[in-house]
Amino acid sequence: MTGHSSGVRWADRAAPRVALDDLAPTDGHDDQPGPAALQEELAELLRSTAAVAAATDDGLRDHAAEAVSALATPPGALGRLADLAVELAVIRGDLPPPIPQRATLIAAAGDHGVHVHGVTPWPQRVSALVASTLAGGHAGASAFANEAGARTVVIDAGLVTPPAPAPRLVPARVVAGTRDLRTRDALSDGEVARAIVLGARVTEAIVAEGGDLVAVGDLGIGNTTASAALIAACADVDVRLVTGRGAGIDDATLELKRRVVTDAVVRAGQRDAAGYLAAFGGAEHAALVGVLLAAASHRIPVVLDGVIACAAALVASRMSPGCREVMIAGHRSPEPGAGVVLEALGLHPLLDLELCLGEGSGALAAIPLVRIAARLLHDVARLDEVLGGSPPER
Hints:
Layout: H1 36-54, H2 58-69, H3 80-92, E1 103-110, H4 125-135, H5 140-148, E2 151-158, E3 169-171, H6 189-208, E4 213-219, H7 223-235, H8 251-268, H9 273-280, H10 283-297, E5 302-304, H11 307-319, E6 327-329, H12 336-345, H13 361-379, H14 383-387
Parallel strand pairs: 1-2, 1-4, 2-3, 4-5, 5-6
Helix pairs in contact: 1-6, 1-10, 2-3, 3-13, 5-13, 6-10, 7-8, 7-9, 7-11, 7-12, 9-11, 10-11, 11-12
């Protein structure tokens, strides 16, 4: 499969070139709200997403459901693929929906200051190594991307250690790791805005190059702790229901992790979604919020991966409810917080493989099913065509 306007295969294309100079921190952690132009860019992104959602054709869902029902298949035989076909028609605003040909994995990377409390045994330098491996095409998720024919773009939104340069890497750190969310806000409002705009710019550039499906993933040390705090606060649920073992921690560390998340949620108090993102989030969470908002503004379907992507999806849906419409749950993560988010958003995962690799692997695994669902309304005959007349009552 070639690119939109290039002889290079879509999956082999380098990361898009985007403006980064105005997103870099001035000196370490930046507590400023950010330039007025950046704030306006974020506000325009939210307005655009809301406008697209408001313009959705309410009748298209019914027409798509009727089209699926008219296919030459037994009633209910397509299961949830039938529902997905309808959703894709609504997302794209077209019937039949276009079959996605240029999928892109956008994996955002960030480290977390909460690491100082020992919530994970892994050192933070691992994050940069994994980012380099994924950008180089040799990580676990790379096998999934290769099979799905998906392009890979890795955004260094907030790693402590910069990864090695690579064509698929966007080196755009808005912060070199977050602050300790247990004792203070992880990000400033300015850092949140920069990271959201970063994710949005990368997505806009990919769409401009012809991208028509996005899978969102992540990587970083300490990110399940931050995700648990985000989900507990945004969904207003008990910390124990959303805090899991992450990268395989033992019972004692899990109890510590729960205490840390509880302390963070109590410290932050009541806020709006953007406030919670500042309180607990990583730069990768904020960047993925930007990805989701920008994709929604272009009616591009987004396949979610695990708990970090789900946490970002919950925040994005609170900031702009219309972006929920483009979300597809790729799989059910074993992390408990992911299930809480999917239920809150009314999303049903396509796969349940007990997969907890991260990096976007679960989202990538679901891409063939997304394509099949879109293809149903292109390739499958209608029942009346098969019977040569009016179909019988079903």
